[in-house]
Amino acid sequence: GAGIMNGRGVMMVAAPFHNAATGKVYVFKGPDLSRTSVNQAASVAHATFTGQQADGFFGFSMAVLGRIDSSSFDEFGIGAPGIGRAYVFKGRNNLNSINLAVDISDTLILEGNAADSFGFSISGDGDVDGFFNEDGEVNNGRPDVVVGAPGANGDTGAAFLYSGQVLRDAYDNG
After folding, report:
1. What is the DSSP letter of 42?
2. How far is CA 101 from CA 23, 24, 51, in A?
3. Are 112 and 147 in contact (CB under 8 A)?
4. CA dihedral of 80, 94, 64, 22, whole degrees rounded to 10
5. pLDDT single digits (tens) 99-157
6. Which of 36, 47, 154, 156 is the most buried (most CB within 10 A)?
7. What is the pTM of this model?
């Protein structure tokens, strides 16, 4: 996946089968990348995020979610359908690497059912539950997050909508 976080070009590259399918996501900022080579070493990544446990397939889905926290940085989400989770990370100017097996601070964990592959997809940056403003646009000031679970409801699938305002409150309340 790729996107803009904190106003700069950022590229996220996932390796969901890394280390017994624990999964790992590499975050590259534009200045990290060579302009003369198409081959980039993982070691030049600005930050890495490692999944919580084996068979989680952390990184199977990724998305820039928008500014849930009202800072000047976009939050981003990463799915781990093997364990039925999606993670929402705070956007920051200086991202630090995180190993979720030992540190889940500043991370919102959305939990579903692994049997349903919750976390198979994640999306955001739209405001579904807001109000109509004078321009006829829906807005409550917080982008919402949608997490997919294709195995839910007898394999007909389901999409779970999380209010950006509720997620913001969760950040504020720890």
Report:
1. G
2. 11, 12, 7
3. yes
4. -10
5. 999 999 889 999 999 999 999 999 997 888 777 777 776 666 789 999 999 999 999 99
6. 47
7. 0.89
